[in-house]
């Protein structure tokens, strides 16, 4: 089956972490460490046991937060406030990406399992916030993270998006399954291989999956090469 193209796209949907900035910045590593601390403190377990629980919930529930809410009654506000207390300074302004996004015809939206506060901090460091019409975060998703099908449905309905005229950019292949089923053109953003990244093995899988239309290790370059429409 031929990969879907971009000729008809009028809505461009981007994940945030490890998508709008390179994997090797390892910003998510800071969040990951904070999540482990939260789990350890909340459950009163060792760091090693917290790590096991954290990754088990992440895999089974889409986010560790969802697992902690479901299994242990954690409040989302408490969790998000703790885990996003990180240093965003490793992020550097990316005017080239901003220019490439600005050239895309139509609307640009962010769909993330993170919080709006985290999105705002990241976009401010990258200097590209002005290019996005809106952010759909974990609160807008009613605390149900990607890849839950209902999360994409809420997003599409809230922002009146026709999935058959939309493209989705993501760093996790499993988060592109539902978008592809809905008719979206899907793009998997992968590490460029030049520097070490901190990821689970399963997070790096799926490049050859049928629901992945395109793969890139250079999002800015990929967007710059898209055919311009007048």
Description:
With 230 residues, this protein is an alpha/beta fold. Helix content is 40%, strand content 11%. It contains nine helices and six strands. It has helices spanning 27-43, 47-61, 64-72, 76-83, 95-103, 116-126, 149-158, 177-181, 219-225; strands at 11-14, 107-111, 134-136, 166-170, 185-189, 214-216. It has a six-stranded parallel sheet, with no helix packed on it. Strand 2 (107-111), helix 6 (116-126) and strand 3 (134-136) form a beta-alpha-beta unit. Helix 1 crosses helix 2, helix 2 packs across helix 3 and helix 5 runs parallel beside helix 9. The protein is globular, with a radius of gyration of 17 Å.
Topology (SSEs and partners):
Elements: E1 11-14, H1 27-43, H2 47-61, H3 64-72, H4 76-83, H5 95-103, E2 107-111, H6 116-126, E3 134-136, H7 149-158, E4 166-170, H8 177-181, E5 185-189, E6 214-216, H9 219-225
Parallel strand pairs: 1-2, 1-4, 2-3, 4-5, 5-6
Helix pairs in contact: 1-2, 2-3, 5-9
Task: Tell me the fraction of residues in β-strands, as a range.
Answer: 5-15%
Strand tally: 6
What spatial form do the alpha-carbon principal axes imply? globular
Averaging pLDDT over every residue, what do you get?
A: 92
